[in-house]
Specification:
This protein is an alpha+beta fold and about 625 residues long. It is built from 15 helices and 37 strands. Strands 20, 21, 22, 23, 24, 30, 32, 34, 35, 36 and 37 form an eleven-stranded mixed β-sheet that branches. The model is unreliable at about 1-35, about 65-75 and about 80-90 (pLDDT under 50).
């Protein structure tokens, strides 16, 4: 029996069931005829979406009373749990008062907007979650715009009213203003508002705490319309995909017309306009945290289909005799690219399982199937690929995932995508929002202005200053680490793509040069100790190095080649026992994103399953000098 046969049939009212006998199988398949609500939860990063889904699952008794579930149940991916962000949109289904509610948890970071754009097509309403202190943030605006354009019915939830300095009434006014700015209809402007705390597990129409979140579930039943049932030939758009090692690729989407049946012959309407005959082998609907096998799916419900070969997200599964394609989901274009290539360092092949260009190419092509906002293009060099994404986080999650799967690769400096509009060079601009304690606001303004940013809004929120800037995307590369340094880690940064505008000219990059290993070998504590006045190190004593590897940051502009493999010379007068006086400052540890923001044009990152190393593209010092001379003569 299939491992997804995991529905808790005790919770289903027997009078609402239709039995289907299936001659090929020795079990009875149930299909539930019931009211449906499809709702997506949208919000900015860390405003409490996944915690709210946890509370909905517990309130609707998805789990046994004695079952250990932990927190952030929906963030099942290791990277999601480590970073505390949602990366992949996910579906769950709960039953409340006899109504099936399909809940879609969406990412909150602008870099994963491609996930949000496609899954909103499955929803009929949205739960807009806003932090009671921070108010509407850039990503709130981004996802709300998409939801309003699709005419979805909004419910506003002002979360975290238990936080100190929160200002729920002001935030409510700011949300209304945002709806107005986004040209919401009169019906959408008349949105219901709830206040509460996902963490404490209560919501209410006022600021008075309640015992539970049932008022939220009642509001969903009342304000979100049931999906429109359209009779006629079946139509379903593939808005997501799942994968099973037993069943292969699985198409997920909402049936928008007709009834989808098991064993039904269908036509797959491809993106390029061609038609492909296929058959629905197995049908599943979402029940609780899993899927349940059914014989048919009614119009308006979200289902998973097994047996469709070669489909892509956005394509339509339609009736065999009367195939009609639905409009393809428009996805915002990428704004940044990076070069992915094979690892050609002296440590090539020592730590990874997949190291060839064919391995990297196959993995990138596989990623394209489900990562809609990603683009990959091949270059003249068979070992190099240009990968286009929404931002540094979007690209770094792909690199980190590949690394954990056993891939070795080299990635270059992120570059923004430049377009020519009306004969002029244009680049992407972003709206940057910074919340920072008042005493650091001057440093933030100075830092952003140096990177060609222009301030539009400056407001006081309690003890914090709220600053909004218009800044070229290029100016954001490397800005986060500098801003955290200059504000003692207090600044909270968020940004979203705005539009393409004329090229702003030269933007200064990193101020300091780097320390480069002169020779291969093991770093010694003796050598590092002697060089500590030249800069800060990224390595520990005893670490294996190669020539051209970046091992630290120089205290001055310009690069410095140093020998950290030098050992102490032993004589009759000096012995190894006097090394107790060596005091080495702990190394600087940087994340993959920080490394990507740190490197310059002549540098790259070697990524393996065990290590992330910075290096010069030209490892040999003489080769680097020749290359720099050539670049100067070309200029």
């Amino acid at each position: 029996m299939n491992r997804w046969w995991n529905a808790d049939l005790r919770s289903i009212n027997p009078s609402r069931l239709i039995k289907h006998r299936c001659s090929k199988r020795n079990y009875t398949i149930f299909n539930q005829i019931m009211d449906i609500r499809n709702i997506a939860i949208i919000a900015h990063v860390d405003h409490g979406k996944t915690t709210l889904v946890d509370k909905i699952l517990h309130t609707t008794n998805v789990f046994r009373d004695n079952q250990e579930t932990g927190e952030l149940i929906m963030d099942s991916n290791d990277l999601e749990r480590e970073r505390g962000i949602t990366i992949l949109a996910k579906n769950v289904s709960v039953t409340y008062k006899g109504v099936k509610i399909n809940v879609i948890d969406t990412p909150g970071h602008a870099d994963f907007g491609g996930e949000v754009e496609r899954v909103l097509k499955m929803a009929d309403g949205v739960l807009l979650l806003v932090d009671a202190f921070e108010g509407p943030m850039p990503q709130t605006r981004f996802v709300l715009q998409k939801a309003l354009n699709l005419n979805l019915h909004p419910i506003v939830v002002i979360n975290k009213v238990d936080k100190p300095n929160c200002r729920p009434e002001e935030v409510h006014d700011a949300v209304f203003e945002l709806f107005f700015q986004l040209d919401a209809t009169e019906e959408q402007l008349n949105f219901p508002t709830l206040y509460g705390s996902s963490k404490q597990g209560w919501f209410n129409t006022t600021l008075d705490p309640k015992e539970d979140i049932t008022i939220l579930l009642d509001t969903i039943l009342e304000k979100v319309p049931a999906p429109t049932v359209v009779e006629g030939p079946v139509q379903m758009q593939v808005t997501s995909l799942d994968y099973s090692s037993f069943l292969g690729r699985i198409a997920v989407g909402k049936v928008v017309r007709g009834v989808m049946k098991e064993g039904q012959p269908v036509m797959l309407c491809k993106v390029d306009g061609t038609m492909q005959r296929s058959r629905v082998k197995e049908l599943y609907v979402f029940v609780d945290m899993g899927k349940k096998k059914v014989a048919e799916v009614q119009c308006g419900d979200i289902c998973a289909i097994v047996g469709i070969d070669g489909f892509q997200i956005g394509e339509t599964i339609a009736d065999i005799d009367n195939p009609e394609a639905l409009e393809i989901i428009p996805i915002d274009e990428p704004t940044m690219n990076m070069q992915f290539s094979i690892n050609n360092s002296p440590f090539f092949g020592k730590e990874g399982k997949f190291v060839t260009s064919r391995h990297i190419r196959d993995r990138l092509m596989k990623e394209l199937e489900k990562n809609l906002a990603l683009r990959v293009s091949e270059t003249d060099d068979a070992d190099k690929f240009l990968v286009y994404g929404r931002g540094i986080l979007h690209l770094s999650i792909l690199v980190e995932t590949m690394r954990r799967e056993g891939y070795e690769l080299t990635v270059g400096q992120p570059q923004v995508i430049v377009k020519e509009i009306d004969g002029k060079k244009n680049e992407p601009y972003e709206v940057l929002v910074v919340d920072v304690p008042a005493e650091f606001s001057g440093r933030v303004i100075d830092l952003v202005t140096q990177r060609k940013g222009e301030m539009h809004i400056m407001e006081t929120k309690g003890q914090m200053q709220h600053l909004e800037f218009d800044i070229p995307s290029r100016g954001l590369i490397g800005l986060r680490s500098q801003m955290l340094t200059n504000t003692a880690g207090e600044a909270v940064m968020a940004h979203r793509f705005d539009q393409y505008k004329p090229w702003k000219g030269f933007i200064p990059g990193r101020n300091n040069g780097v320390l480069i290993a002169k020779t291969a070998g093991k770093a010694t504590g003796y050598a590092i100790d002697k060089l500590q006045d030249r800069g800060a190190f990224f390595i520990d004593p005893g670490q294996e190095l190669y020539e051209g590897q970046i091992i630290g940051e120089h205290i001055k502009p310009g690069d410095l080649v140093v020998n950290v493999a030098e050992t102490k010379k032993l004589t009759n007068m000096r012995s190894s026992g006097t090394d107790d006086s060596v005091r080495i400052t702990p190394k600087i540890d940087m994340t993959l994103e920080e490394n990507m923001e740190y490197i310059q044009q002549d540098e790259c990152i070697e990524v393996t399953p065990k290590n992330i190393r910075l290096r010069k593209i030209q490892l040999n010092e003489e080769d680097r000098k020749k290359f720099q001379k050539m670049m100067k003569s070309d200029a």
